[in-house]
Amino acid sequence: MARAPRVRFGPSPTGFLHLGGLRTALCNFLFARQRRGTFVLRVEDTDRARAVPGAAEAIEEMLDWAGIPPDESPRRGGPFGPYRQSLRLELYRGASEVLLASGTAYRCFCTPQRLELLKKEALRSQQTPRYDNRCRHLTPREVAEKLSQGLDWVVRFRLETGVEPFQDMVYGWNKHEVAEVEGDPVILKGDGFPTYHLANVVDDHYMGITHVLRGTEWLTSTSKHLLLYKAFGWDPPQFGHLPLLLNKDGSKLSKRQGDIFLERFARDGCLPEALLDIITNCGSGFAEKQMGRTLEEMISQFEIGRVTTHSALLDLEQLPEYNRIHLIRHIENEQLRQELVRELQLLVEHVYGDQQVDPEVLEKEYVERVLLLRKGHISFLKNLVSPDYSYLWVRPLVSREQLQTISAEADEIGTLVLGLMARQAAALTVEGLNKELRSLQNQTKEPKYSNVMKLLRLALSGQQHGPSVAEMMVTLGPREVCGRMHRALSS
């Protein structure tokens, strides 16, 4: 029986979780869930200079928010912890000692100044900067002498030519003769912290990772990592490299823009299901594109073999439509709808709290009915507290005299509307109301249909602009329409 897969998502806490990272995490989550495997969150915080305080915790919180929580993580723990690389330094030091003892790694005493000169010289010659492997040739006696002088050193891995090809789950057969284009890489820095290459190989081995699904930027480094596995005598995991997530025009997603971080989408009221849906639809991994796919459908339909090698183009202008579709599902689900009711109540209090909101419009039944009636018409919950919908939450203070300045038939129009609401209470529709309102005007002495509409709009919303009168009446419902008409005509 095949072993259940263990996959990992290894973000660096140099910033907050963005859409590219979310897609990598999602692919790992889907792969694990589909095969009853384990999804591990491992924080790769060895770059101390770039680490952002609180970022590691925020990344895990955003995975939880997105609905793809890890099974093992810094917060949840697990049998292979700790799950922060900065807490695993002894493991990396021990691993580097193994490589030093076998001769597959060596101590390098080159100063930063010398390395900088090498770099400048290469650039002057229009060549790619690379280390010249000078310390690779030091004898044991020379190494001992430099150590006795107290010189600073790092550990470099000895790259060899003749790497073996590997089969990537996305890109197929691959190999990169890294020794021909790179100098021997640093695997342990002078401060005792590992570089990515050593830390990932060591952690993937000791955490029992079976499949590595990561960004395509690491594809050319995989041959280097396989040389490390060979040097340790370990069996490597299977690799799959995911193509880049780009803007729809092919440009790179910019973290500096600030609008690709999950916190921003959560703050703006975007549903996590909509984000997962749009980033899977713009890429590959599924037999067909399908707007509105649920997480359960993603788990059952995802195929790593269907991930293509071309970049995924993300069109965030379509996000409102994705969110609209998933918002419909939330509204139709009894439990999720109650969460939306509570969220909308808070939004109304926040936006209209200083405008004497009547407590009745915050009642659960009223708010829930608004949600059900506006289902499919709004893309985000916050749309319902926009100026167009302010009439829902702030009952207008309109007098009978104001209505009579629009039409002398105000009383008659009001009486007819009250009768209409009584007759149509069970089946209010915008189309049906538009016909009824046309008929209503013919029953009065008011010659202008536009005056009837102005009068009703003022009585119901206190505004001169906004949605159609029929749409307002449907959303408010017969009880609220009648209440507002009564108040206006009797004031």
Count of discrete alpha- or pi-helical segments spanning 4 or more residues: 19
Assembly state of the chains shown: single chain
Low-confidence residue ranges: none
Distance between the termini: 79 Å
Q: Helix- and strand-based class?
A: mainly alpha
Query: What fraction of residues sit in β-strands?
Result: 5-15%
Q: What is the number of E strands? A: 11
Radius of gyration: 32 Å
Shape designation:
elongated
The H-and-E topology, N to C, reads as: EHEHHEHHEEEHEHEHEEHHHEHHHHHHHH
Which sheet architecture does the biggest sheet show?
A: 3 strands, antiparallel
Mean pLDDT: 93
Biggest sheet: strands side by side, in what order?
3-4-7
Helix content: 40-55%
Describe the structure.
By secondary structure, this protein is mostly helical. Helices cover 46% and strands 8% of the residues. The protein is built from 19 helices and eleven strands. β8, α8 and β9 form a beta-alpha-beta unit. α16 (410-424) packs antiparallel against α17 (430-442).
